[in-house]
Amino acid sequence: MTQTPGWSVHNPGGSLRVVVTKALPGSRWLEVLTAADARIEVCDSERILSQQSILEAIGDACDGAIGQLTERWDDTLFAALAGAGGRAYSNYAVGFDNVDVAAATAHGIPVGNTPGVLTDATAEMAVTLTLAAARRVVEADAFMRAGRYDGWLPSLFLGEQMRGKTLGLLGAGRIGRAYARIMVEGFGMNLCWFDPAPDDAVSGWIQALNGYRRQRGAAQLGCERAASVDDVLRAADVASLHMPLTDDTFHVIDASRLALMKSDAVLVNTSRGPVIDEAALVTHCREKPRFRAGLDVFEEEPQMKPGLAELDNVVVVPHIASATVWTREAMATLAANNVAGLLGGLPVADANTPVTDFLGDAPPRAVPSIVNPQVLG
């Protein structure tokens, strides 16, 4: 096969063909696929590939693929992958709202993802955005660089303090809980949270923390499991979103819910952009200059809604919550193990197997994470 311009080939003598739609960090993932006897074809372009470009890359003989959250893997792509002999797909992400899992299942293709290694990095970025927005770090940095600082003033860049305030948590999965631990334990914040799942791990953790604080004579921290999103937003000094994108969470934060929030609250989003009505957020932030937001994701990435970039009370970063060297390399290794394991006929890992076990030189003889295991019987 002739190498297509813009694509690199690794292990050209491999008997299996795996297409990877973006160059991934690190080298361990290449070693994993090479050990599985795969010829690995990697797109070198930083541009988001069109559906047609991905179809051309799949061609008429392709055993597996690793795709990106910026690509819509739908029935057309999975039909092409299955038609080319494909038996494995992995998303290079923990979320898979860009993947039509039902279509993949219909074509007999297991879908992998990369959970468990983004938790701390994403939680830390949520904390970073919270503090940057609350303490007006980006505004102050621009002010300083512009040479406008003439000396200390009592009223210069007054922001909001975290200690003793109420943290509103919307979504109490792994990332949400990790973020809450940093904010509650680090700043002594009270917690108000909502999650439709029945797990009560949050309350148990706060009870244990309060027991520790009681022994040391520290004040008890409040913890309330709210009955609704609205209740959280009314109470929160900081509201942080940690929910998947579904039909139920699309625009879960809209104009009416923004109106419920305190005028000096901070809203943070490191989940998925469309959970916020971005146009409504622009209007709200214009009308409420003490309201602040920190955004890692956007409704129509890579574009922002008109007016967002001009707002001083909004901190924006380009979807980098998981962008630490360790996390992105770990994601690549997990995605490669998903594809290599499926092509090697391995079973899906037991739910109790830590995903970090797959990052070393001797990973378990299993597939780390498949979101539609029923396709494997």
Task: Please give the structural blueprint.
Layout: E1 7-10, E2 16-20, H1 28-35, E3 38-43, H2 51-58, E4 64-67, H3 75-83, E5 88-91, H4 101-106, E6 111-112, H5 119-134, H6 137-145, E7 166-170, H7 174-187, E8 190-194, H8 201-215, E9 223-225, H9 229-235, E10 238-241, H10 255-258, E11 266-269, H11 278-287, E12 292-295, E13 314-316, H12 325-343
Parallel strand pairs: 2-3, 2-4, 4-5, 5-6, 7-8, 7-10, 8-9, 10-11, 11-12, 12-13
Antiparallel strand pairs: 1-3
Helix pairs in contact: 1-12, 5-7
Task: Give an account of the 3D structure.
By secondary structure, the chain is α/β, with parallel strands linked by helices. It folds into two domains: 7-117 and 324-376, NAD(P)-binding Rossmann-like Domain (Rossmann fold), CATH 3.40.50.720; 119-316, NAD(P)-binding Rossmann-like Domain (Rossmann fold, 3-Layer(aba) Sandwich). The chain is 33% helix and 14% strand. The chain has twelve helices and 13 strands. β8 (190-194), α8 and β9 (223-225) form a beta-alpha-beta unit. The relative contact order is 0.14. The mean pLDDT is 96.
Summary, kept brief:
By secondary structure, the protein is an alpha/beta fold. The chain has helices at 28-35, 51-58, 75-83, 101-106, 119-134, 137-145, 174-187, 201-215, 229-235, 255-258, 278-287, 325-343, and strands at 7-10, 16-20, 38-43, 64-67, 88-91, 111-112, 166-170, 190-194, 223-225, 238-241, 266-269, 292-295, 314-316.
Task: Write out key terms for the chains shown.
377 residues; alpha/beta; Rossmann fold; 2 domains; 6-stranded mixed β-sheet; 13 strands
